[in-house]
Hints:
By secondary structure, the chain is an alpha/beta fold.
Amino acid sequence: MSDEPTTEAAVTPAATVHEYTPSSIVVPEHLNRSDTDAEDLALEASIRNLGLLHPIVVTLLALGVIQLVSGSRRLGAWRRLFGDTRLIPCVVVPEERALQATFEENDLREELSPVDRARIGKNALDTARDPAAAATKLLTVLKYSEDHLNNLRRVFERPSLWQHAQAGKLTLRTAMDLCDSPEDQVSGFLAQELAANPKVTTPELTRRVLEHVGHEIRATIHRVGVKEVIGEVVTDFVADAKGVVTFDVEHDVKARRFSVLVRGPMPPGGAEAVRLKLSKAEAKVAARAAEIEAAARPVAPSAPTPPAPTPPAPTPEGSNA
C-alpha cells in the first residue's frame, strides 16, 4: 500500500520531530532578529497558506532549555501569526550536532523516521489555509507520492491509529492497512491488547490486530511434500475471494517449511474460510509427511525362524525305561 522509501527499523534516529510552545524556545544572540523585512512578510504569507513545510531546528540543553539552532525567520513568522496558540514543529538534534545542523537542514529531513516526517506533513496540513496547495508542496519537500500522502491523510483522520503509530506500537504501513477496518473494531482491540500486555512488541501487536480484523493471516506449515497442498489452498481461496486478497508463499528448503501470508482486506467470512482451509491443509501435510517418513523408514531384518524341536524317539515295547 505504501511506497515510503524509508524503513521503519527499530533504531534511534539522529534527529526527531517534536512540537513546542514558541515562547519556550530560546533564541541565541547571533540568531536574534528584531526587524521585519519583505522576506519575512513573504514567509508569513507562505506559512499562513501552506503551513510550516520546513520545521525549525532546535537542540535540548541542560535543565530542559530548548535552544534554536536554525530557522529564526520561521520562528518569528510563526510567533507573529499564531503566538502561543499553536505548537511549532521542530527538528530536534543532539547538542553535539547543533553547529553541523545549521548547514544541513535538508539532510536532516532525510534522517527522520517515517513517523517524524509524517508529523511534519500533518502539522502543515492542519495549519495551512490552503491544504490542497500544502499537499502539493509536501510531495516535493518530503518526497512522497500522491498515493502515500493520501494514505497518510487517512491515518491522520483516525486518531487511534495515528496515536499508536506515533507511540511506535504500530508502523505507519500497518496503520494505513487498518484504515479499511471499522474504527471501533480496531481501537477497542488495540486498547484491550495493550492493557493486557503493555510491553507487547510492535511486530507481535501488528500480527494480532491484522488477524483480528481479518486483514492478514500468517500460517507456517512445517514438514516436506507440501508444495502442491499449499498450491491447492491458494488456488481455492483466491477463487472463493474473487481476487480480493493476495497471497505470498515462501519456501524454505533448509527449514523444510512453507509459509503462507494472506493479505486483505478480506471479503465477508474470508478470514474464517482461509483459516479453515489452512487447518485442513495442515492435516493433509501431516498425513503426507507420515507416509513419507514411513516409506523412508528402513525395514528391520526379521529374526531367523528357530528349527522345530526334534520329537523324542519312541520307546521300544517291553522296555523298563
